[in-house]
Amino acid sequence: MLLRHTTKEIKERQALTVNPAKTCQPIGAMYAALGIHNCLPHSHGSQGCCAYHRSTLTRHYKEPVMAGTSSFTEGASVFGGQANLLQAIDTIFTVYDPDVIAVHTTCLSETIGDDIPQIAKKAEAEGKIPKGKYVIHANTPSYVGSHVTGFATMTRAMVDYFAESNGHKIDQINIIPGYVEPSDMEEIKRIVSELGLRAVMFPDTSNVLNRPQTGRFDMFPKGGTTVEALRSTGNSKATIALGRLASGPAARALDAKCKVMCEILDLPIGLAATDAFVDTLRRLGGVNVPDSINIERGQMLDIITDMHQYFYGKKVGLVGDPDQLISLTEFLVSIDMWPIYVVTGTPGKKFESKIVEITRDVPHEVKVAAGGDMFLFHQWLKNEPVDLMMGNTYLKYISRDEDIPFVRFGFPILDRVGHSYFPTVGYRGGMRVLEKILDALLDKKDRESPEESFELVL
Amino acid sequence: MAASKINSTTGIESVDPGELKAELVAKYPTKVGRKRAKQIVINSVEECGEVPEIGANSRTIPGIITQRGCSYAGCKGVVLGPTRDIINLTHGPIGCGFYSWLTRRNQTRTNGPGDANFMTYCFSTDLQDEDIVFGGEKKLRKAIREIYDNFKPKAIGIFATCPVGLIGDDVHAVAREMKEELGINIFGFSCEGYKGVSQSAGHHIANNVLFSHVVGLDDTPSKGKFKINLLGEYNIGGDAFEIERILDEAGITVVSTFSGNSTYDKFANSHTADLNTVMCHRSINYVAEMMEKKYGIPWIKVNFIGAASTAKTLRKIANYFEDEELIERVEKIIGEEMVEVEKVRLEVKSRCEGKLAMLFVGGSRAHHYQDLFAEIGMKTVAAGYEFAHRDDYEGRSVLPNIKVDADSRNIEELRVEPDAERFSPRKSQEALERLKAKGFRFKDYDGMMPEMASGTLIIDDISQFETEKLIEKYKPDIFCAGIKEKYAIQKKGIPMKQLHSYDSGGPYAGFKGAINFWREIDRMVNSKVWSYLKAPWQESPELTATYAWE
Ligand code: SF4
Ligand code: SF4
Question: Mean pLDDT, chain A, as a whole number?
Fold first, then answer.
């Protein structure tokens, strides 16, 4: 057994986290910053945090992930990291020449209380920031929230630093895609353009963390939202924020700063959430939904109706991030699956009540934990197993021990490819999720059904 | 691009390392350039083996894009990570524990389902806002009790992360208190990420704690005629299994490994071995030194990476024990193993000879793996460590001349005295002299540079910028480093081999490991997959459209 010490008996824990279902803020901030064109993320703290964040993102995307660090030593942690950050800014602009350095803090610099804007001002006064270049920042203490919070905060920083309004609205909408994959961001852009709308999406990691093999390495790849585009977000007609936790703060900041009205929606994972997204686009843009989209929707629905017998009444355990889990739970409920365990490591009471609300018609007890961990999740399974699990790579240890089919979903996925190229949002993304679920369930059925009832046609 | 290169050797001859160094240094702000100049050295090996001085184990320049990690990573990740039955509790916010959870590919093999194995688990106190404000000791104590209630481990290690030091939590005091309360061994590591300048500080801290809290707790005489410890071997990809297989066959008993496939009890009993063999000098030499002082166990440097190196190591161990039967047995094993090894070596060599390699990694592997490349005729044109010290580059003879700076002074040097009862020199003075007269060397690490050709480039703590420049200039056939570097290099069309975690391969140690490695390198440097970089229309865009029937 891989997880041989996990017992059926559940003892209350108040201080100990075992097998976390979240990670720390800066990695989310780093990921978001990679979605700015010509931007180098910078971790203001000891170099270990940065090494860990880069490694994890690299393993998840199998792509270069570049970022600087302030490399604190004992001295810096006593006297503060000002000298380190000044030197970092100088070195980065001299050697790597980005347009933007996006600084995020770490637990260490937060505990010390380094004032990043003040240090950036000093750098500017000392001539260390070349003209037309920027140092932006986000405070990302990991003892608050999770990696999702870090993503949200850095995305908000893009608004705080760049969004401008000149009073003239332009014919474009803003889309904040949430903490989703580059493939998802690409798909969201495709849907928007299918409807014939102009949009600025930020951050945008497509063509950054899923770039092609060309025999060339560009420190700053073609993708990412440009500073110019970020500036223009203040003049957009409206903002659509996907995912309350990851995108809400930036959308509200933009509303407050530049009076751009916003609609905050669930991530468009599944039928209803995608419907809501497309419908909002239609209303805000004043356009008709083209047939191409109707066809995609119909295809997705076709899979659901054709294969309903395999979904119906199947118990599912989910581990992941709140925005994803809310949409996914709703999706599964809508196809008559029973998500009975829903766990996120990200704390938040609202999440729990939202899941309870979504699952109220599920004819089975539903357990939900915000601020939970995979150890607890596994213990639940030991008491009553499920037919399917969805979550990040770490679930494969449980999957093997308990022989439960498993679909990789969320962050991080360290042992498979695909997530950076094939979306799970939109109708097409939904079709992929359905395909994955069916593959997992039916592979098990094929493996285990007795010879006399082994079937060719499913 | 690897695929389009005709003659690799011309690649190296066309590069003037002096010019290249000047170009690298010139790119930086002046002060930074001056510092880098000390860490970028053109190798020249004097007849007596002397090499130029290199700057190492100094602070990383902020913003330079370094390979390095932190002291916590070196302590919890590298040294303690591979031990299966100690619960490693990360005291801090969630990230540090999360990232070091199962990511290093250390393998472990339990003795059955009843055996403890916590390596698949991640334990953290997940400190929150209020803990940072009011202190986290209370939560730590509680977490330890909860560990005990749920898991009943033999031992618990507490690892301090960056903020813990600042808020003043005393992990050692909590460890003492909880040890008393629960009656199991509990010890703390002050391995906050800002300690020292790299993972290296964490290795030292881990060595100190293991030595003072675990080694020597169990005096039961270990069994076996030839008893050794294998130090600095972490069983990445199963390396330790292959080494154990060979040693087993030779009748050499491994009392404990620090720390691949290791257990708490084996550490506790390790002082009953008669020889310490050191693989990764950088990460573990402290334990070797301290065990020699306290218990009288001599240490020697060994290397199981490379077939010839493995053979040499086996002979060295056999010679140490001065036992004819053992010496014969070892020769027999080498003879038998080398048949298959030679077959594969020559086959792979026929396809790899003359190709160029670069290795920038770790604290010993950038050196050890050069042997494997050399055996198939590949040349190492540039190499460097991520976190090694001058002695790992220039050899231990420079130890007395290394200036201890403030960052290193902060890492405790334990004062070790011979143990009143248990110190027993494993070799008599006479035997030592006899061995030395025959050319046997103890505590011998000559470092990387004396074994590299003059004119090669040695770079300590290489930056992203330097990595790219090196690739552009030398166009190597393979580049070895870690996961963070991997895909930037491969995007340039150069295959990249991870030498921390081996990507998905291994074992690469010992005889079978050498075969595995050569096959892997053969696959990488001779693969056709690198030849598809250009689409047909990019290869010859000048063609104008023609119709198929024309
Ligand atoms: S939790 Fe804090 S100290 Fe740990 S890796 Fe994340 S930012 Fe760094
Ligand atoms: S050199 Fe590499 S293998 Fe050796 S301890 Fe260091 S990281 Fe580990």
Answer: 97
Q: Environment class of residue B437 by beta-carbon count within 10 Å: exposed (0-12), middle (13-18) or buried (19+)?
A: exposed
Q: Which of A22, A53, A55 to mutate against chain B (most B CBs within 10 Å)?
A: A55
Q: How many C-alpha atoms does B229 have within 13 Å on its Cβ side? A: 32
Quickly state the pLDDT bin for A224 (edges 50, 70, 90): very high
A325 vs A20: CA distance, rounded Å = 16
Tell me which H or E stretch contains A262: strand A261-265
Which of A323-332, B10-19, B50-59 is predicted with the least confidence, judged by mean pLDDT? Answer: B10-19
B488 to A217: CB separation less than 8 angstroms, yes or no? yes
User: Which range is least confidently modeled, A62-66, A246-250, A411-415, B2-6?
Assistant: B2-6
Please check whether residue B120 touches A, CB under 8 A. Answer: yes
Give yes or no for a contact between A55 and A81, defined as CB atoms under 8 angstroms apart. Answer: no
Asked if A137 contacts A25 with a C-beta cutoff of 8 angstroms, the reply is no
Burial of residue A201, with CB atoms counted within 10 A of its CB: 0-12 exposed, 13-18 middle, 19 or more buried: buried
Quote the tokens at residue A97: 């020449």
The pLDDT score that the predictor gives to residue B547 is: 62
- Nearest alpha-carbon partner for B176 in B190, B165, B161, B186: B186
Domains within chain A, CATH numbers bracketed: 25-148 (3.40.50.1980), 170-294 (3.40.50.1980), 306-453 (3.40.50.1980)
Instruction: List, as ranges, residues 4-23 from A with C-beta within 8 Å of B.
Output: 4-5, 7, 11, 13-20, 22-23
Rounded Cα distance, B124 and B423, in Å: 38
Amino acid at position B253, single letter: T
Q: What is the pLDDT of residue B4?
A: 34
Which sign, positive or negative, has the C-alpha torsion A22, A26, A27, A32? positive
CA dist B72 and B285 (Å) reads 18
Nearest to A18 among B66, B121, B406 (CB): B121
From A10, A86, A90, A2, select the one nearest A44 (Cα to Cα).
A86
Q: What is residue B540's predicted lDDT score, i.e. its pLDDT? A: 79
In the DSSP assignment, the letter for residue B356 is: E
Q: Which residues of A touch B131 (CB under 8 A)?
A: 143
Mean pLDDT computed over A387-402: 98
Please give the order of strands across the beta sheet that includes B86-91: A17-18, B123-124, B86-91, B155-160, B185-189
Element housing B159 (H / E): strand B155-160
Asked if residue B94 lies in contact with residue A23, where contact means CB atoms within 8 angstroms, the answer is yes
Structural domains for chain B: 71-193 (3.40.50.1980)
The verdict on whether B70 is a catalytic residue reads yes
Spatial distance between the Cα atoms of A310 and A304, rounded to a whole number of angstroms: 10
Distance between CA atoms of residues B511 and A81, nearest Å: 49
Strands (E), A68-160: 68-69, 100-105, 134-138
Write out pLDDT tens, residues A427-453. Answer: 999 999 999 999 999 999 999 999 999
What's the distance, CA A353 to chain centroid? 21
Q: Do B484 and A92 touch (CB under 8 A)?
A: no
Q: Please tell me the predicted confidence (pLDDT) of residue B544.
A: 62
* Paired tokens of B114: 């009843």
Burial class, A2, CB count within 10 angstroms (exposed 0-12 / middle 13-18 / buried 19+)? middle
Return d(Cα B296, Cα B289) in angstroms, integer.
Answer: 10
- The helix or strand, by DSSP H or E, that contains position B517, with its residue range, turns out to be helix B510-525
Using one digit for the tens of pLDDT, what is the confidence trace for B293-351?
A: 999 999 999 999 999 999 999 999 999 999 999 999 999 999 999 999 999 999 999 99
